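Holo prediction. Input below; ligand is pyridoxal-5'-phosphate.
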Amino acid sequence: MTTYRLNEVTAVGSDAAERIAKASRRPSSLGATPTGAIALSMGEPDSGTPDRIVEAAVEALRNGRTRYTKLTGAPELQSALAVKMSAKAERVVSPDQIVITHGGSAGLAATILAVINPGDRVLIPEPTYSLYADHLAMAGAEAVWIPNKPDGSLDLRRIQAESAVARMIILCNPGNPSGRIYGVEELRSLAGIMEANPHMLLLSDEAYSDIVFDGAKFLSVLELEAIADQVILCSTFSKTYAMTGWRLGYVVAPAVLADKINLVHRSINGALNTFVQDAALEALETDPATLEKLALSYQLRRDIVVDLLSGEPGISLLTPQGAFYAWVRIDSSLSSDEMTARFAEGGVIVRSGSEYGPSGEGYIRISFATDSDSLKEGLRRFVDVVRSLV
Ligand SMILES: Cc1ncc(COP(=O)(O)O)c(C=O)c1O
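Structure of the complex:
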């Protein structure tokens, strides 16, 4: 048998892999939570997938739904999503505008690879989900970070100034890690900038759009009808239906772009798991009252975070309006990474703010997608550590 040995030549990755490694702010591995520590770091619901959805997958498997489906996704699921998206957009969204993807992650990646060229400038309001910059690095594009204003809103003036030479802007709304929702007025102003720059695309990652608090109005980019042909929405079954491990997401785009996104998606993934798509159809049947109850359960945990952290010297945060994250500023001379290590030593695992963009230095992301007892104990430890830091 021939043995190949890696040497300086064979061990070198592609330029794309090297670019991702250089640009990425994401931790290489989150590792296991040490015994006795409390994890306020997880980006997934604590509840587990509802039984109904699990049963639908089991039944599909028993019924022999184990073969390839269409490369664009199961037609029934595409149609069901088209109905849901039409209701969201308050206009007709047709099935050929829907691409079903391997989680939201692969939907984002396929979108970037399908519409972005090397050298393109892409605006990223931040702090934001860290995967976008990695995808842009993969495509050889340039990420232009645009820090949000202190109240969490978009810096529209800066966006306007950059827009003439930008190919795309990527929003995360509701925000991971900020827990903030962009307001109706600022999104309409952004639409005005987009209209004046028809070369630009708006990619909105709305993974948390069903987790909104205090009856806040959430405006999806699909509702911005005047720029409908510039808008791409990416979402996922992961958060709303607690299906993180099932790996199913979707992209909604103008049909001509959906075709291109699908071309990339199918070149990488081929067809998706048939029985998972059957289960997703069941997930879409979830009644709105159940989804509201779920959002309320996160809101109650949000209240615990705000109650326990507000007024603590050295800590400041804006009240989260959606998703399940609190974005906490800490007055300390330590870096976010150093603080994260100190929190781990104090028995609470959180995420370093620097992961989410240059303006995240000095911040920590807390996830409150955990049971309220663990949350309270985790926050007690968090506050103890902060008192030793400031
Ligand atoms: C904002 C955002 N978008 C996309 C994703 C990826 O979701 P998926 O698990 O469907 O790949 C996540 C996961 O944490 C997220 O927070």
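The first helix runs from residue 15 to 23. That is the main takeaway for now.
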